[in-house]
Amino acid sequence: MPALAKIQVKPEIKEKGYEIRIGRNIYSQFAQELLEIKRGSQALLVSNDVIYALYGTKIESELKKQGFQVMVYLVPDGEEYKSWQEAEKILTTMLEAGFNRDGLVLALGGGVIGDLAGFVAAIYQRGIDLVQLPTSLLAQVDSSVGGKVAVNHPLGKNMIGAFYHPLGVWTDLDTLKTLPEREWLAGLGEVVKYGAIWDDNLFDLIEKNIERIRHRDLEFIQFLIFRCCEIKAEIVERDEREQGLRMILNFGHTIGHALEKLTCYKVYRHGEAVAIGMVWAAKLAVNMGLCSTEVRERLEKVLKEIGLPINLPGVKADEILETIVLDKKVRDKKLTFVLPRLIGQVEVIKGIEPEMLKELLSNTVL
Ligand SMILES: NC(=O)c1ccc[n+]([C@@H]2O[C@H](COP(=O)([O-])OP(=O)(O)OC[C@H]3O[C@@H](n4cnc5c(N)ncnc54)[C@H](O)[C@@H]3O)[C@@H](O)[C@H]2O)c1
Ligand SMILES: [Zn+2]
Fold first, then answer.
1. Is 358 strand, coil or helix?
2. Do domains 4-178 and 181-364 have the same CATH topology?
3. So what's the pLDDT on residue 130?
4. Residue 215 catalytic?
């Protein structure tokens, strides 16, 4: 893998594609590279206190060196600030500062900042340029790729949003050194997902390199991030608006989301809930005769070795079911699940009777 890995993304809804750059010490060149694709000079850097203190000042000075006029907006840390109110505050700041249509929004942070700043860029004067500078593993492999931006609404997560692609994504691997352990593990939940849904070789490699992963060996992690972005870009290019194929990215998410919702988003990090959800989807698939027990066992083993949870602790089967059935995606009270066939291959199965899931959950829930 070259020191700087690049992926070209060519979404249909953006005439020009964009590049994801993944490497070390990326922030020292990025402002210069940005200048080659960007004309305007106003830049709004959106981040939070923690991340700004670690990386923001360097980015700000690099941008200034290249002639950008930089404004900084810091959002308090936390999912609850991925809100319409916070978006409005940012928009007001931009209007008050006379921010132009050829200005640029830079999202420096995890998925919360990426989604919020991305949403602001999508709606400010009907859309201005956006650059993603993802700093959490989850943001680097998932939320910064694919063009979905959103804020939460009291009635639902990510309910107000848009499809909006960035001008480019700059992923600096060194930011992962300061990522808290739990956030690191949560991101790995999504990494395992890419192997499970699309690429058995990637899954094998994860199984064989648990130690390198646990120690955050950045050379190996660069490969993992690169491959995950490649997979997501390929899936999204084929199905930008989630009409079909893109649904497979939701493997582990049906039960995962229900679990997050039931515990008011306070107990599990998203990737942890997805890890649990993938194992239970595999159990359902085994029960339905769609895959072998080996598939479930390999999934369970790799997630466990990484350090992710795989059990549903003390949650009632009825509660999980009810939460899933209330979800927006349920039609006629029948369930749709992404279920594994093999490692590296899943299928969207519609029309699953809730009773089938209930039986599985009731028989096994602790
Ligand atoms: N748009 C999409 O396609 C998409 C996909 C998946 C998830 N998401 C969204 O992403 C969000 C979750 O993202 P997340 O898991 O990155 O959470 P997050 O943005 O809350 O970041 C997690 C925590 O890690 C901290 N952090 C991030 N990078 C750091 C670093 N390098 N060093 C030290 N601390 C760091 C953050 O300040 C925060 O406290 C959710 O809102 C979810 O809905 C969006
Ligand atoms: Zn996810």
1. helix
2. no
3. 97
4. no
Does the pTM surpass 0.90? The reply is yes
Q: Which ligand is nearest to the CA of 187?
A: 1
Q: Is 165 annotated in the active site?
A: no
Ligand 1 pocket check for 144: Cβ under 6 Å: no
126 is catalytic: yes
Task: Calculate how far, in angstroms, residue 269's C-alpha sits from the geometric centre of ligand 2.
Answer: 10
Question: Quick count: other Cβ atoms within 10 Å of Cβ 260?
Answer: 23
Spell out the residues 6+ positions from residue 108 whose beta carbon is closer than 8 angstroms to its own: 45, 46, 47, 51, 52, 55, 56, 59, 133, 135
DSSP letter at 76?
A: P
- The CATH code of domain 4-178 reads 3.40.50.1970
What's the rounded Cα separation, in Å, for the pair 44 and 60?
A: 10
Per-residue confidence (pLDDT) for residue 364, from 0 to 100: 62
pLDDT, averaged in runs of 10, over the chain (366 residues): 84 76 93 88 97 97 95 96 98 97 97 98 97 98 95 92 95 98 98 98 98 96 97 89 86 94 91 96 94 97 97 79 73 85 96 86 63
Q: Enter the CATH code of domain 181-364.
A: 1.20.1090.10
Catalytic residue, candidates 126, 177, 208, 333 = 126
**Ligand located closest to 278 CA:** 2
Domain ranges in the chain are: 4-178, 181-364
